[in-house]
Amino acid sequence: MSSSPPAALRPIAITQGDAAGIGPEIIARAFRDAPDALRGCFVVGDVAVQRRAGGCILRAGDTMLPVATIAAAGQALAVPPRCVPVLQLPGLPPEPPAFGRISAAAGQAAADCVVWAARAALRGEVAALVTAPLHKEALSAAGIAFPGHTELLQAEAAQHAGVPLAEMPVRMMLASDELRTVLVSIHVSLRDALAAVTQGNVLAALRITHAALSRSLGRAPRIGVAGLNPHAGEGGLFGREEIDTIAPAIRAAQAEGIDARGPFAPDTVFMRARSTPQRPGEFDVVLAMYHDQGLIPVKYLGVDKGVNVTLGLPLVRTSPDHGTAFDIAGQGVADASSLIEALRMARQLSSLPD
């Protein structure tokens, strides 16, 4: 990507997400309410879907949010504020899907948008991509082999680099002003998540976290590592994963100069890492052993503040930290705060020096 224009001269792609959910609505609301954060951004998706979303958020006395069709990513830079530029992908369904219903066609369309944006980012045509929520059942119904964004983007990056999937390790980070967590495993069953707690996987997560946050923080991050078992195993009384697997991975990381400590009891380590105006966190990030262990604390502190960041990719990808919210889709009440934060973080990350 060294031959690409500087990030400030490249647009940011926003994928539309599952059109049966709130993705298009929060995109429309963000363009209307946060024009400074949305400058130079464009939507990868369907014009009709985005126009319908604009109607959903229409307030009394408002004029309809304009939608502009663009033919190339670079044209987004010339679109005026509070106008939604949409790069219309060919082959999408001719009509927007019904709100709140799982649809294979909507799942396929959402995946197609992500693939287009990922390839544009890998070619250096866009500075970053921000992804509106997918619906995992809709993806599965469409026959998509990947359960979510992270795995789909990992596969695209590996293919672009010409390497096996195992040589493109990635991790999910959920971040807010108060807390960051990185996950050892992502979208797998709890039984498979336990099996994924190996020394190699924990060490790989520590390396990816150290490299990514060293770049964004400008210094080595302080990484607190959560145990797997209650009380971090209590010296082997409640399980030996901490002794046999997690602690050896931490020691190996420390030997490489990584500031990793633990494993700590998972019911208290997140409180120790939380940063507030009254007290800075003891750690910059917590490495959690599985999905819910790490995501529940961040989401509890405020879904509107959290941003999902994929670490380890040769591109910048962020996302709001919530799902498709089928239960409120089409009502015009969805909150765009997390999407706006994801856009701001994408802009910040894409502007960092290589």
TrEMBL record:
Gene Ontology MF terms: metal ion binding; NAD binding; oxidoreductase activity
Is the keyword Metal-binding in the record? yes
Question: Gene3D superfamilies per the record?
Answer: Isopropylmalate Dehydrogenase
One Pfam match, given by its short name, reads PdxA
InterPro entries per UniProt: PdxA_fam
Residue ranges that the Swiss-Prot or TrEMBL entry lists as coiled coil: none
Q: Which UniProt keywords apply?
A: Metal-binding, NAD, Oxidoreductase
- How is this protein named in the record? 4-hydroxythreonine-4-phosphate dehydrogenase
- Name the species this protein comes from: Paracidovorax wautersii
**Organism classification:** Bacteria, Pseudomonadati, Pseudomonadota, Betaproteobacteria, Burkholderiales
